Amino acid sequence: MQDFTLELQFKITGIGSASGIIYKDNLLFIISDNGTFLYQYDIEKKKLAKIKLFENGQENIPKKDKYDFESICLKENKLYILGSGSTSKREKRISYNLQTKEVKEKDITKLYQKLKNSAAIYDDDLNIEGSLFYNEKWCFFQRGNGANSKNGVFISNQNDNIIFSAIKLPKIKHIETSFTDAILVEEKIYFLATAEDTTSTYNDGEILGSIIGRLDVQSMQIDFTHKITDTHKFEGLTLYNKTKDKIEFLLCEDNDTEALETNIYKLSL
Question: What is the pTM of this model?
Fold first, then answer.
């Protein structure tokens, strides 16, 4: 593993509990697991806009009522935002068309039930934290931080035929890290994983650190992992810049508070 640098890149007021991020055309699209807005931040103008995902936009929704949007990915000209699936309230998928600005809602309860069945995961242990689209298939990244759960990737084709690949991630101290996001860069999947001292997909625990890693998209074998922090709970990952010798990502952090302030970090490998 080559050296890395991690530095604060942007500080954005007006967003709390950031859980996913997309960089495109000098804009940041950010979601929060506490609310029902898609946030658009213009980097050049330093201007934040809020896009309602539901008619009544909300921030800092009580834990028992929130939709828990943990995953955002870009497919063609649409952003797809997914709930974690850790409660029945969290089984929604929202699409946002970047050209027409149209917002569409879809209930994905049946899909999430198929995911649970394919991996023998209990209802309380499903926790989808990342998603991407590759070769006409969806990949959903399961955060294995539940009492009976496991890290892994669900691969679903257009007919919702599902394969689950369990993936063993390294520990920080006594806790196995668990997926918090993933993106596709050419033929490789770069992912984030965090060690949180809890056995619940619902309740938060002490943060022990986060890692960056890479999977081969064909074999789902780990190429490398590397710890990047002892204290931050990084939950969002997007490609910022790539050259022959260096790759740069932007990371967002879930601070697990009601403070409407978000720090965006740049990670360079």
Answer: 0.94
